[in-house]
Design goal:
alpha/beta, Nucleotidyltransferase, domain 5, globular, disordered N terminus
C-alpha cells in the first residue's frame, strides 16, 4: 500500500519564531505608502513572506517587503539587530569592540549596523522660529578606517594640519527656541554661501541671529537684512546661549575623546544621533524612522555621496576609494532633498 503526502507551504505569520517586538514592527509600525524602487503609489499584495506580506508594484512590476529600503533591509538576525539598536538608544554609543563582545558579532557587522541605524534618523524639514543661535564647530579632516592612507590616525597631531583651514571639517550648529540642528558644511574656510546652502530656506521667519563675530556670519545676516548679536557678549547673561554653547562643547568632547575621532565621511550621521540622544528623541524603531525607505541606497552609495562632497565642498583630493559594491544600490527611488550631504 502506497501512502502519498501532500506538501502545503506554511504561510503562518509565526514561522521562524520571531519575537513579539519584531512582529509588532512589521504588522503595526511599518507602513507601505509607495514602491521603494520607483516611488509609485500603485501596488498590490503579492503573497506572504514569513511573518509579513509581500507587495508588487503595478508600475515597475518589482516586488518588495514593508521593510525594503529601511534599516531592517538585508538584516538576517533581525531580533539581534533590534537589541543592538535598543542598546544604542538606552546606553549610548559604545566602542565597536564592546559591541562585538556583547552581541557576539563581527567588527564589520557592528560597524555596518551602527551606520544603518544612524542613517535612519529622519531629516527635519521644519522652518526655524523667532531668534536663531548659530555656532561654528570644526574638526580635523578625518579619513579614519580608509585603507591605503599611511598613518591616517596620527596625522591630525601634526601642527601643520592644526593651523591650516584647508583641513578643518566645518559643522554648523544652529538652534531656535524649540529645536536644534547640526549640519556638515564643508572642509576649509567657512563662507556665507555655505550657510545659505544649508539654512536659507528654513529661515524665513528669523529676524535676529546670535552668532560669533566672524565675517561669514556677518555677510550672511547682512544679505538677509537680519539683525545680528555677538555670541560672546551674551553668553554670560543668557542661559539659553550658555546651554547651547555647553551642548556644542560636549559634542566636540564626545567625538574627540569618547569616539577617538569620526571619519568626515560619516560625521553628519553622528551629529543627528547626538542631538537625538541628548533630547531623548532617538527612537530607532519609531514609525518616522521606519518610513525612511531610502536607507539601503544611502548605506550602499555613501562612498559616492562622500566623493561628491569632497569634490564640491573641499579643496582636497578624493583618493583611496573603498571597494565594497552592491548590485541593487542604484535601483531605488531617491529625491535630492533626502541626501545627507
Amino acid at each position: 500500500m502506497w501512502v502519498f503526502y501532500i506538501f502545503v507551504p506554511n504561510f503562518n505569520f509565526m514561522s521562524n519564531n520571531p519575537s513579539k517586538e519584531l512582529l509588532n514592527i512589521y504588522q503595526k509600525v511599518i507602513k507601505v505608502r509607495h514602491c521603494p524602487w520607483c516611488g509609485s503609489e500603485e501596488f498590490v499584495k503579492h503573497g506572504k513572506y514569513k511573518y509579513t506580506y509581500r507587495y508588487k508594484c503595478k508600475s515597475c512590476r518589482r516586488t518588495f517587503l514593508p521593510s525594503t529600503g529601511t534599516s531592517l533591509h538585508y538584516i538576517h538576525k533581525k531580533d539581534l539587530f533590534i537589541s543592538y539598536a535598543k542598546f544604542i538608544q538606552r546606553e549610548g554609543m559604545a566602542s565597536l569592540k564592546k559591541m562585538c563582545k556583547r552581541f557576539e558579532i563581527a567588527p564589520l557587522t557592528a560597524f555596518d549596523w551602527r551606520h544603518k541605524i544612524l542613517m535612519s534618523i529622519p531629516l527635519n524639514d521644519k522652518n526655524f522660529l523667532s531668534e536663531l543661535f548659530m555656532q561654528d564647530l570644526w574638526f580635523l579632516f578625518n579619513q579614519k578606517g580608509r585603507k591605503g592612507i599611511p598613518n591616517s590616525r596620527t596625522t591630525g597631531n601634526d601642527p601643520i594640519f592644526l593651523c591650516d583651514d584647508k583641513y578643518k571639517t566645518r559643522i554648523l550648529s544652529v538652534k531656535d527656541n524649540v529645536r536644534g540642528e547640526m549640519k556638515l558644511s564643508n572642509v576649509g574656510g567657512l563662507k556665507k554661501e555655505h550657510l545659505q546652502r544649508l539654512f536659507e530656506k528654513k529661515m524665513k521667519q528669523i529676524k535676529i541671529i546670535t552668532c560669533p563675530d566672524i565675517d561669514c556670519f556677518k555677510d550672511f545676516a547682512k544679505k538677509r537684512n537680519t539683525k545680528i548679536i555677538d555670541f560672546e557678549s551674551k553668553i554670560k547673561i543668557d542661559s539659553k546661549i550658555r546651554s547651547f554653547n555647553i551642548q556644542n562643547q560636549l559634542f566636540k568632547i564626545w567625538i574627540n575623546k569618547s569616539l577617538k575621532g569620526v571619519a568626515t565621511k560619516y560625521i553628519a550621521m553622528y551629529c543627528n544621533y547626538f542631538l537625538g540622544f541628548i533630547t531623548h528623541s532617538f527612537k530607532p524603531f519609531a514609525q518616522s524612522y521606519l518610513l525612511q525607505k531610502n536607507i539601503w541606497p544611502f548605506y550602499t552609495l555613501v562612498e559616492e555621496f562622500y566623493a561628491a562632497f569632497v569634490t564640491k565642498y573641499t579643496s582636497l583630493e578624493y583618493a583611496f576609494p573603498t571597494k565594497r559594491k552592491w548590485k541593487t544600490s542604484k535601483f531605488y527611488y531617491l529625491k535630492e532633498w533626502q541626501f545627507r550631504y
